[in-house]
Structures are given as structure tokens and as C-alpha cells.
Amino acid sequence: MSLPYAADAELSLSPSELSVLASQYQSELATGHVTTQTKFNYAWGLVKSKSRDEMSRGIGLLTEIYRSDPPRRRECLYYLSLGHFKMGNYDEARRFNALLIEREPNNLQAQSLNSLIEKGVAREGYIGMALMGGAAAVGGVLLAGLLRRRR
């Protein structure tokens, strides 16, 4: 199976495309047996969504496949990493992507996603530092005001 590069995976399916995958999944679910491929296809579509709820459901389905079907773990790792990345769960994204890179050091999709994850971690760090700096500045102003009142 060919996996898309991380940048390509940012493209969402159209509602009608996702609906086809959902219908297939629901149809098999109603029979009491969902094939791993159908579950994977639906999870893949959900992870590519812009909706956090759908991404979360996709991660849940991929986690089920990862746990129950060892031969499918490789293809699940990338999308588990991608889903966590898109949701801002950088530690989980790193963990799954590291497992994939460990198995396949030359995997260009995993390398590309790794770059995106690291940029996300750095961006989150900068935002955190800015928030801490802002909180410190507000705290300093409040403290200065309290000290002036006491005099």
C-alpha cells in the first residue's frame, strides 16, 4: 500500500466520499462482521477529516486495528501519528511515528510527518513561552500596583 506524503494527507475527503466509506462500514457492522479493510478505509477517511470528533473516531478505529491485527500495524502507525498530529497530540504523534521510522528508516512519509510534528512542537513551545511571558508581565503589573497601594 502506498501512503501519501504528510502534506498530501491534509486534504480532506468530500462529505460524499466519506459518506460512501461510512455506509460500507455501517452495512458490514449491521451484518456482524466488519472487514479490517473496510474499517481501515473508514478510519483513514475520518482521520483526514477537519472535524476533531471524526478524527478522534478514526484514531479509535485505527487503534482497534493496530491491537487486533498485527500484520496491519505498519499502515496504522502512519495514520495514528497523523491523526494525533492533526489534533495537536504531539507526544502521541511522535510515539507512533517513531515506531514507524524504527521499522522503516527510509520511509519518506514518516520523515515528512516527523518534520511537521517537530514544527508543531516548536510552535506550541513558542506559544507556551509567549503565554508565560504575558502572565509574568500581568503578574508584575499587579504586584507593582499592590506595592504602590501599601505605601
General description of the model:
The protein has 151 residues and is mainly alpha-helical. The protein has one domain: Tetratricopeptide repeat domain (Serine Threonine Protein Phosphatase 5, Tetratricopeptide repeat). Helices cover 77% and strands 0% of the residues. It has 6 helices and no strands. The longest helix has 43 residues, at 108-150. 27% of the residues are buried. The mean pLDDT is 86. It comes from Pseudomicrostroma glucosiphilum. The chain crosses the membrane at residues 126-147. It is found in: Mitochondrion outer membrane. One of its GO terms (biological process) is autophagy of mitochondrion. Keywords: Membrane, Mitochondrion, Mitochondrion outer membrane, Repeat, TPR repeat, Transmembrane, Transmembrane helix.
Q: Outline of this structure?
A:
It is built from six helices and no strands. It is mainly α.
Total number of strands: 0
Helix-strand category = mainly alpha
If you average the pLDDT, what whole number results?
86
What letter string, H or E per element, gives the SSE order?
HHHHHH
Which fold name fills CATH's third level, the topology?
Answer: Serine Threonine Protein Phosphatase 5, Tetratricopeptide repeat
Q: Runs with pLDDT <50, length 5+?
A: none
Query: What is the helix tally?
Result: 6
Strand content: under 5%
CATH second-level architecture: Alpha Horseshoe
Write out the CATH superfamily name.
Answer: Tetratricopeptide repeat domain
Bin the helical content: over 70%
Distance between the termini: 73 Å
CATH class: Mainly Alpha
Q: What is the rounded Rg? A: 21 Å
Report the principal-axis shape.
Answer: elongated
